[in-house]
Design brief:
With 277 residues, the chain is of the alpha/beta class. The chain has one domain (10-276): Rossmann fold. It is built from 7 helices and 9 strands, in the order H-E-H-E-E-E-H-E-E-H-E-H-E-H-E-H. It has a 5-stranded mixed barrel with strand order 5-8-7-6-9, surrounded by 4 helices. Strand 3 (79-84) and strand 4 (90-94) form a beta hairpin. The termini are far apart. The structure holds hypoxanthine. Hypoxanthine binds at residues 129-131, 197-198, 214-216, 239-240, 242, 250, 255.
Amino acid sequence: MAHSPQNPLDDPAADPFEIAARAAADIARLTGVENHDIALTLGSGWGKAAEIIGETIASVPATEVTGFSRPALEGHVGTLRSIRTPSGRNVLVIGARTHYYEDHGVRRVVHSVRTAAATGAKIMVLTNGAGGIRETWKPGQPVLISDHINLTADSPLEGATFIDLTDLYSRRLRDIARQIDPSLDEGVYCQFRGPHYETPAEVQMAKHIGGHIVGMSTALEAIAARQAGMEILGLSLITNLAAGIQETPLSHAEVIEAGQAAEPVISSLLARIVEAL
Ligand code: HPA
């Protein structure tokens, strides 16, 4: 697959943490904001949150920041924004997710998370659009991620790096989110490689091994965020019921549409949660 040779992360001898530190320095220089407190990755359906969390101090094309890749997909905005919340905290909003299925390697997938940590962020909020396995869930509904099952058979950790993943999606942060919206349900997120959607049989497998949400992101990012010492909050927008749970075939257009329809409601929910963190 096409690796752009100028991305320093593609050099196996390079240190991804040193590259993340360079990216954080780029962000400080381009935004004028030295440190960030919270980082937020906006997946499909969550983009509008950037407009209501607070005042945008600066907006930077991700391509100007060391190690970032171009967005692969329409609907995935390649921008990094520094936002000041009403309570005066600096939030780094990452609208430039690199997916595992893009085949640029795990380093590039988790570079935004490592960069967020290097900017000083102590809390990493990971959002995504995903398929729901629980039949009671409806498209357009946001749910908390309580844990994950990583089905990529890959890891962002390099070498013999052993890291505990207990309470990876912080109970403390989930409790805060539920104080804002007590109706928030939660479930276990299964990261598949994609980019194809799952077969109904794979969805049944995910269900039997304890999964409730299926998607193509987040788990690898959460592992990197834990390695970097951040506390993690995970939120999925259920854009569709997973293959075989809903009767109709899945389509990318349906996923985007559900995201757009839910956007105003979930974005304001997310803004209120961020303010409470
Ligand atoms: N499966 C995987 N990823 C997804 C889905 C799904 O059903 N919906 C949105 N992203």
